[in-house]
Amino acid sequence: MERLRDQGFLFLCVANSARSQMAEGLARKRFGDRLRVQSAGSRPSRVNPWAIEVMREVGVDLATHESKSVETIDPNTVDTVVTLCAEEVCPVFLGKARRIHWPIEDPASDDPAIFRGVMLARFRSARDQIQGYIETLAARVERARR
Q: Are 35 and 27 in contact (CB under 8 A)?
């Protein structure tokens, strides 16, 4: 198995509002300051309030996070890029970083007819999928460090 470079991780999705923000928060919680963890998007907007709420449930505070453009990320700080797109076109990161893809559906919606419980379930599902991927990533990082 290829050794996973573990110095700098960048999580990317389109708006940098939900999936990549949740991944950043979960990775920071899991790895602490042992790794450099960032997130960004190709069309940054704002951190989604539903993401803030479901992450608070697992002890991660996204309330102070801001959406960032992938163009603001220094390629020299990134060894591994993780894209978190399913149905939409994933952002591109120019640089020599290793690429990993986690196909997670966007839980966000602007449809006001979607009930609170449904939105929470969608965001919890995305969070839990990301958590599973983070744990798999953590195992690979730990093996690579041995």
A: yes
**pLDDT tens digits along 75-102:** 999 999 999 998 777 777 877 899 999 9
CA–CA gap between residue 104 and residue 109 (Å, rounded) = 14
Residue for token pair 């999928």? 129
Q: Which two tokens stand for residue 2?
A: 């290829």
Quick check: helix, strand or coil at residue 35?
A: coil
Alpha helices in 10-71 (DSSP H): 19-31, 49-56
Active-site amino acid positions: 13, 85, 90
Query: Burial level of 132, CB count in 10 A (0-12/13-18/19+)?
Result: exposed
Check residue 80 and give its pLDDT.
92
The pair of structure tokens assigned to 68 is: 């960032």
With contact defined as beta carbons under 8 Å apart, do 101 and 90 qualify? yes
Residue 28 burial (C-beta neighbours within 10 Å; 0-12, 13-18, 19+): middle
Its pTM stands at 0.91
* C-alpha span between 75 and 56 (Å, rounded): 30
User: Is the distance from CB of 48 to CB of 13 less than 8 angstroms?
Assistant: no
State residue 17's pLDDT score. Answer: 96
